[in-house]
Amino acid sequence: MVGFFQKNTLYFLKALSVFLGTIIGVGIFSLPFVASKAGFFITVFYFIIITIVTIILHFIYGKICAETETIHRLPGYVEKYLGKKYKKIAIFTTGFVLTGGLLSYLIVGGEFLKFLFGSYFGEDVLIYVLIFFAVGAYLIFKGIKSISKIGLAFFAVFLIILFLFFLKAVPHINFANFQTMDLKFLVLPYGVILFSLWGFAIVPELKEMMINNYPDRNLDMKTKKKNLRKVQAYGIFLASVIYLFFIFIIFGVCGINTSKEALSGFNQILGNGVIKLGFLFGIITCFTSFIALGLTLKKTLCYDFKISKNISWFIACFFPLFLYLLGLKEFITIIGITGAVAIGIEYIIIIFLYKAFLRQKFSQKINPLFYILSLFFILGVVLEIFYFIK
Predict the structure, then answer these.
(1) Is the dihedral of CA 335, 337, 340, 346 positive or negative?
(2) Looking at residue 5, what DSSP letter applies?
(3) What is the pLDDT of residues 271-296, one digit of tens each?
């Protein structure tokens, strides 16, 4: 690749932006609050460990996708290599993760709309949640995925807003905030960070982009697979760096007054201006991710459960709304449980999927270290459940 604007380089950046757009979502707005409870350096420690582990698991899942001729979602790969019994578990965890994500986007998207428009549509946040839901559900029904076409530009705008936040925040950052920690919240960052770095749903699409539909036909298969791994590694690493930078800005200014969705507390201390731009971008981020996850859940129900498109759409959209109306509105709790339990179990499934894949495809045995990794996720599931029950 010679020159930044060379065709291959731009295509690589497009794939990277699509991947980053999938990873960076509602989780970013929870991270400063988590850091304010557990402590900045405890949160950084979690990020280092979970980033490394997530890259490793993305590599093995990417290898499964790359070496399997047919395109599947996770439940499809599980059925192929582990059997129908384990497919049911994979469908459950995938549904859990996607539903938890959709519910989180409803909560935060509604709150951001209210912050941006004030009391224009009334004082009750439910009105804004319903507006957010109605538009999102309509686009999911129509099957619109326009964000993938402007992913690179969208990500550039995100970085610009983040830089503006930094410029506005610098004079107000209090470095004493970074010295605080509370061991009572030691477990809190685990599930939230796991949720924030989750991006497995897009890996089959990355395979199509980087291997099946790569524009340079002269590129050999080995290089294509290497580029897929690069997109995965760079994407997860950059997401982690961006998350930590966002935590540094918000928590550095707000300290113990950091709000659960980050921006309202930031707004109270620094006032309007660029913060309104942040709310607007937060709404766009939540909205586009809500559509992407809704479409993924709709397709999963359609293809794996053989449910009609209309009923799949109804379940995918209205079940998260039903949970919200039932009173599930604690944003941090939802993504923490979703991350630690559902994604933790999903990661364990991927490890055993990789074991079966190696045995069937290459007659190889899995590295025993992956079993230790499984214990790490099992421990995370147990501790997170114990923490939230307590």
Answers:
(1) negative
(2) T
(3) 666 778 888 888 888 888 888 889 88
369-389 vs 344-362: helix axis angle to the nearest 10? 160
How far apart are alpha carbons 156 and 35 in whole angstroms?
26
Q: What angle do CA 203, 187, 354 make, to 5 degrees?
A: 30
**Contact present, 22 and 157 (Cβ < 8 Å):** no
DSSP assignment string, 169-208? HGGG--GGGGG-B-GGGTTHHHHHHHHHT--GGGHHHHHI
Q: Cβ atoms within 10 A of the Cβ of 362, count?
A: 9
Question: Token match 């980050």: residue?
Answer: 262
Nearest CA among 345, 346, 341 for reference residue 187: 341
Per-residue DSSP letter, 149: G
C-alpha to C-alpha distance for 297 and 356, rounded to whole angstroms = 26
The residues, ordered by sequence, that sit 6+ positions from 357 with a Cβ below 8 Å of its Cβ are: 63, 64, 67, 68, 77, 81
Distances in Å between the Cα of 269 and the Cα atoms of 102, 113, 161 are 30, 20, 18
Closest of 89, 299, 91, 93 to residue 194, by C-alpha: 93
Q: H/E element holding 247?
A: helix 221-254
φ/ψ of residue 181, rounded to 5: -160, 155
In this structure, how many other beta carbons lie within 10 angstroms of the beta carbon of residue 316? 27
Task: Extract the tokens encoding 214.
Answer: 């790569």
- Residue 176 and residue 100: Cα distance in Å, rounded? 34
Q: Is the pLDDT of residue 1 over 50?
A: no
What are the tens digits of pLDDT across the range 143-171? 765 555 555 677 778 888 888 888 888 99
Token pair of 40, please? 């900045």
Q: Is the pTM of this model over 0.70?
A: yes
pLDDT digits (tens, 9 = 90+) for 220-257: 899 999 999 999 999 999 999 999 999 999 999 999 99
Helices (H), 1-124: 7-23, 31-38, 40-67, 74-81, 84-117
Do 31 and 247 touch, CB atoms closer than 8 A?
A: yes
Q: 160-172 in b/e burial notation, b at 16+ Cβ within 10 A? A: ebbeebeebbeee
